[in-house]
Amino acid sequence: MTWTTKATARTRATPEQVWRLWTDVAGWSRWDEEVAWSRRDGAFETGTAGALKPRVGPPTRFVLTAVEPQVAFTSRSSLPLTTFDIIHTLHQDGGETVLEHRLQMTGPLAFLFSRLIGAGVARALPGIVERLARTAEDAAS
Predict the structure, then answer these.
(1) Integer Cα distance of 63 and 47 in angstroms
(2) Closest CA to 6 of 132, 134, 118
(3) How far apart are CA 106 and CA 79, in angstroms?
(4) Tens digits of per-residue pLDDT, 80-131?
(5) How far is Cα 11 from Cα 18, in angstroms, rounded to an integer?
(6) Which runs of E-coded beta strand occur in 34-119?
(7) Chain-centre distance for alpha carbon 7
(8) Residue 48, Cα to own-chain centre: how many angstroms?
(9) Whether this model's pTM surpasses 0.90
(10) In angstroms, rounded to a whole number, what is the distance separating the alpha carbons of residues 24 and 87?
(11) Which residues are bridge partners to 76 per DSSP?
(12) All residues at 6 or more sequence positions from 56 whose CB lies less than 8 Å from its CB, including other chains
């Protein structure tokens, strides 16, 4: 089973400005109110691991499974019998940068985790993406 949700935002910030916020893993809590703290254990590249502590729930480990600088990256966490991917993408459209966060749970227990944590994540996601867009604009000023 697969469960997916996504949110997009448009910003005047450049892809480079958004990318700087994404790669500053220790700073994710500046624009994502659901994150208490986060860190990465190496360069921002495919295969690098890290950890984050949601405001509600236990700390979790993640690994960067794909990184395409200033275009996209994917982080993956593991839940019992389920993978939890967050796919972050950027593209330009009409002089603006469009950023998207897509969350995907896959595996035999994805149906369970989508109910336990997915609904809350889906509710919070649009605000997270909007705060990221505004934070990138503010950093450019």
Answers:
(1) 6
(2) 118
(3) 10
(4) 999 999 999 999 999 999 999 999 999 999 999 999 988 888 999 999 999 9
(5) 9
(6) 35-40, 49-54, 60-68, 72-79, 82-93, 96-106
(7) 10
(8) 15
(9) yes
(10) 16
(11) 63, 85
(12) 34
Nearest Cα residue to 136 out of 20, 23, 7? 20
> What does the alpha-carbon distance between residue 28 and residue 40 come to, in Å, rounded to a whole number?
11
Given its phi and psi angles, is residue 49 left (phi above 0), alpha (psi -120 to 50 degrees) or beta?
A: beta
Q: Which amino acid is at 73?
A: F
3-state helix, strand and coil shares in percent for the chain, rounded to the nearest 5:
35, 45, 25
Q: Are 127 and 33 in contact (CB under 8 A)?
A: yes
